[in-house]
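Sample A.
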Amino acid sequence: MPYIIDGNNLIGCSPDIALNEPDSREKLIALVRKFYESKQTKVTIVFDGSPQSGLFRNTITPKFTIVYPTPGHSADDEIKKILKGYHHSNEVIVVTSDRELKNFAREIGAKTKNSIEFYYELKKACYQQGKQEETQKRIHASLSANEVDNWLKIFGNE
């Protein structure tokens, strides 16, 4: 299921990212990216304000996009526009704690998820992704020639 995330709303609900931090957007993008990598589903984050890069739409991968509203519009306006573009809006999950936006999403058949609830899903996905990465490192660990020599000295070279 595709996710459309109200970025500033999610940052505002998260206990360890503050909206006034200069890198708050980057922190959220990093968290959501781990979620995206674990779920392999389409994710669009919509932030209020203007983009730092000057791009109003930044496609990180074909299924992971960062969007900013055009001047004079809000992130909520942009989310509504994106939602209207889906032929099967009942397959979309909108992440926000904004009551008006949640009501709009539900009216057109989309599912909604509260930002704080989703934040803890993100943290869980990051933890699981980290565990998987650690396991892969252990599975693919190799010894250097020097380490092999040291182990042979300890256990004998027979």
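Sample B.
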Amino acid sequence: MSIKRSKARANAIRHGYRSGLEHTVLDSLKDRKCDASYECMKIEWEDLNYRLYTPDFLLPNGIIIETKGRFTPEDRKKHLCILKQHPDLDIRFVFSNSNSRLRKGAKTTYASWCEKHGFLFADKDVPQEWIKEKKKTNNLMPKEFMSFPYEKIKR
């Protein structure tokens, strides 16, 4: 059984992206002369194992952009853990549709989840204000690899 892919996703994959939204967002950033980097860093985080998270985009001002079509429970858990373990990072979401429900029948949307947990978000594209935003003095520029900030437990 073959999986049908949209033309946008197939085109994005052909150009080295994981989704059509990532490809669209990067094209938009380039059109606005924003020198964003695609999947240029890794962030180590821990649940019961040590893991690596590769953000979709890093803006020149240090803002990390994660694009999401589907926002799964695993993604939500991962981002809450990363927020707790790396509170100095400025991670923001760009959703295909922030009014989508977390699951069928739920009242909570992607947008309300972000608001509840203190994440900034946008629909379809990175807002110009995020690109123009100045670096925060207390927010260090993310490095290519950010290790787990606490003592590691041998498992």
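B remarks: The chain has five helices and eight strands. Helices lie at 7-14, 20-31, 73-85, 110-117, 128-132.
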